[in-house]
């Protein structure tokens, strides 16, 4: 287990709970189980939205509630021979997380085979309890249920492909088999001046795969005080793990800010933002930028930052082609961390399917001084008002891997660096900040060093000075640099791209620079 599995407690998110049988209809009665299909799940979510929200209670018995972090590590050692579909004949296996520590409420788990759902029941025999906790577990521990589950594939029975654990959080890996950023089922009122609401996945239905199956299908029921939902995930493993997601959402009440396909990541510091960098490692982050591919075909790169205060940026669009939180920098030398392996962290790309209409990709950046805190959130916020009684549908594909499935034909931003402005040795009459942006790829790689490449730079306020572009010899990079002169404390929105006589040569670099706040009076 690592920090993402326990982030829920830090943010008060650990709220997974099973619905009472009377609220959801038992999924297994008799040897054949209960009939199950997507339409039943959709109808159940719709019916649930018409009833008052019932918050889950803490289901941990006293002996379990008393266990600390170390106890939970000794407790949560699943025996792989008890995996769902153990034996290796099928291409997938599901393994389960023990209730305890930050995970107080069990989720209901069911296996679906031949159209019938049967419950997956907890047994202490599923876990190899360490000596530290073995004697503290009653002989009759009861049916505690599970906190969540993870899935392995025939290609690697040792390392997870994906997992669901805590609220509506889930994560997946690509070829590197390295976990990093997380996704959520839904975000409600994130980044506002009131507490955020965290919907929960109440129950999961795992479809038994055929022997030659290339994908695993999972259904889940989402619930919160404001909204319910029926979700279907079709997960295909590979160098890039692909999740096709189908959602049916039913609001209980009006929602001011609804986040579709939300992603949660961490950015403490990087080459562009070293405000909190008293560490031997040059960079610490799970993602280094937000990428957007607009409906009009423009590619945008927005480097992430660790701001002085919570910031919310909106990027308006109509039917976006895609967006994601990416880890572009994959050079170990830029991290020097062979434990956390930040250079192997996956990127996550969202590809909308169907008509998403008007809305905005919203990016929320939260200050942090600790790499164990996820401080970056991105999602699609539809412009359509969210009102009770309606049904909303959003389908999309998620790509977990080193690179997104689509790449711009123009040059990409390779690095962003900031520092004191002006020319060394010359007196500065006004405060200024220097921005240095490196681009690579596209037609830039075919231009000679004397080619006329122009940097098109603009700022929402202040003055841009000495903008210039040149190739960095013996590398594939072209560098743009400019100085910004801006007084006051308000943020400055910056925009830059490269072009020549034939048109745009690069994606559009966006940045929001904020002057350091004045020191507080003492």
Can you characterise this structure?
The protein has helices spanning 3-11, 21-24, 38-49, 62-65, 69-75, 131-134, and strands at 34-35, 92-98, 108-113, 116-119, 146-153, 162-165, 169-172, 182-184, 187-188, 200-207, 216-223, 227-236, 241-251, 258-265, 267-269, 284-285, 289-293, 299-303, 311-318, 322-326, 347-353, 358-365, 376-382, 392-401, 412-420, 433-440, 454-459, 463-471, 477-485, 492-500, 503-504, 508-513. It is mainly beta and 522 residues long. The protein folds into three domains: 1-173 and 193-255, Beta-galactosidase, Chain A, domain 5, CATH 2.70.98.10; 258-384 and 397-407, Beta-galactosidase, Chain A, domain 5, CATH 2.70.98; 412-513, Immunoglobulin-like (Sandwich), CATH 2.60.40. The strands form four sheets. The chain has a 16-stranded mixed sheet that branches. Strands 2, 5, 6, 7, 8, 9, 14, 19, 22 and 23 form a ten-stranded antiparallel sheet that branches. Strands 25-26-29-28 form a four-stranded antiparallel sheet, with no helix packed on it. The protein is elongated. The model is unreliable at 1-30 (pLDDT under 50).
Report low-confidence residues grouped into runs of 5 or more: 1-30
Envelope shape = elongated
Q: Would you report the number of β strands?
A: 32
- Tell me the distance between the termini: 43 Å
Write the layout of secondary structure elements.
Elements: H1 3-11, H2 21-24, E1 34-35, H3 38-49, H4 62-65, H5 69-75, E2 92-98, E3 108-113, E4 116-119, H6 131-134, E5 146-153, E6 162-165, E7 169-172, E8 182-184, E9 187-188, E10 200-207, E11 216-223, E12 227-236, E13 241-251, E14 258-265, E15 267-269, E16 284-285, E17 289-293, E18 299-303, E19 311-318, E20 322-326, E21 347-353, E22 358-365, E23 376-382, E24 392-401, E25 412-420, E26 433-440, E27 454-459, E28 463-471, E29 477-485, E30 492-500, E31 503-504, E32 508-513
Parallel strand pairs: 3-10, 18-32
Antiparallel strand pairs: 1-4, 2-5, 3-4, 5-6, 6-7, 7-8, 8-14, 9-14, 10-11, 11-12, 12-13, 13-24, 14-23, 15-16, 17-18, 17-20, 19-22, 20-21, 21-24, 22-23, 25-26, 26-29, 27-30, 28-29, 30-31, 30-32
